[in-house]
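Notes taken during the Thursday session

The instructor put the following on the board and asked us to keep it in front of us for the whole hour. The protein is NUDIX hydrolase. We were told not to look anything up and to reason only from what is written here. First, the residues (246 in total):
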Amino acid sequence: MTVDNYLTDEDRGFLATYDPRAFPPVAVTVDLVVLTVREGELCALLIRRGEPPQRGRWALPGGFVGPGETLDEAAARELAEETGIRAGAHLEQLATFGDPGRDPRMRVVSVAYLALVPDLPTPIAGTDASEARYRPVSDLDGAVLAFDHDRILAEGVERARAKLEYTGLATTFLDEPFTVGDLRRVYETVWGVPLHPANFRRKVLSTPGFVEPTGEKLATGRGWAELYRRGTTAHLHPAIPRPPAA
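Then, after some discussion, the predicted structure tokens were revealed:
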């Protein structure tokens, strides 16, 4: 159902003479903070801009919202184009960025999204990018990205770190099945702090719905490790508090 279903005769008369050109144009984009864990590092997907403005500068993937798209549809399309993921990834709206001077082309309001994905193959640059790469977040501290993307990236990373405390989203960084040790290494990588293995295992297995056993085991150098899949709970109770950074 569209808004047309609720229009009155007065509304239709008003719209017949309404001129949207009487107002300054505003474009809407979606920008994606795509985070994954690769080779023990928390990494963000960046593209090197292949066209002006700011050609050659690293930026977050994203693009303009199409005339017939919702914001969520545009974000899902951009994620699929950049990573090949069309379903199953965690994708949530992060924040809206609308400073008047953030884009030199025109007034552009960006709705940013956070995507958490398992380790993926090396990305391929799209038509408007000269290069695409997963880069360690630790290497980007203080980096100047295109537009205001350094600010968007920082907010996305902090959102991910915070949500690991009270949700099961850490499991979205892993392919199934996984061990508790695999899950602990995700926490250590995203938070940037070491965790006590036995204490972490106790917290995970005592939290209802966090993970579910598959009934299978994996041979390791120290014996056999139980394998798990993602649980069904949306929020962890009790939470797993983030320790202070060293």
